[in-house]
Amino acid sequence: MSSRDRILGRVRRALADVPADDPAYEAAVDRGYAREHGGRTVAETVDLLAENLADYRAIVHRCTEDEVSDLLMRLYAERGSETVLVPPGLPPHWLAAADPVRIHDRAANTPHELDRVDSVITGCALAVAETGTIVLDGSPDQGRRRITLVPDHHICVVRVPDQVVASVPLALERLDPARPLTWISGPSATSDIELDRVEGVHGPRTLEVVLMSGE
């Protein structure tokens, strides 16, 4: 008898005294939980996102689409970034004014090469206001997961309000579960048993989020 047979046998014995007319699990469990908390306007939802991003130690900027190129140029200049990793589908005008050398994401890039890049810039799939979370799904403007896990500085552009949702349940409705989803709440951080916080252990030490409106 295999381990699988033994486990299934134990399940059958445990369920032997359950009446046949018991409701199915899906029907027995109440799914009427709140899909979001409170009623907010679009502007209030974006403000909540900015507040929670900052609470997770992300650096938040706001601009219009016409201003994004100049803003990114200033951010790279302030950090002294000489190279920036660029996913294949990033809108070219975002970096029209930026000076850093563009490093294009290629399958041949080694982790050591990615580690030498000063910054990476991506778009996102969604941003969740109630949790201060940005979600990447590997779309062309975001690139592969590893390019946002190795470089020490990540700039993520969120289109406001189209890519902002209030809650996780609303986000899940819009995301494709078959895609490689990465959920990011602030820069990479971990704490040891004494609760000493260390940043940059398994991802960027610095996360900057640009909330870009279409106005």
From TrEMBL:
Which SUPFAM superfamilies is this protein grouped with? NagB/RpiA/CoA transferase-like (SSF100950)
Residues of the LUD domain:
48-212
Which InterPro entries has this protein been placed in? Answer: FTHF_cligase-like_sf, LUD_dom, NagB/RpiA_transferase-like
Signal sequence bounds: none
Pfam families recorded for this chain? Answer: LUD_dom
| PANTHER family (alphabetical) | LACTATE UTILIZATION PROTEIN C
Q: What is this protein called?
A: LUD domain-containing protein
Organism of origin is Streptomyces atriruber
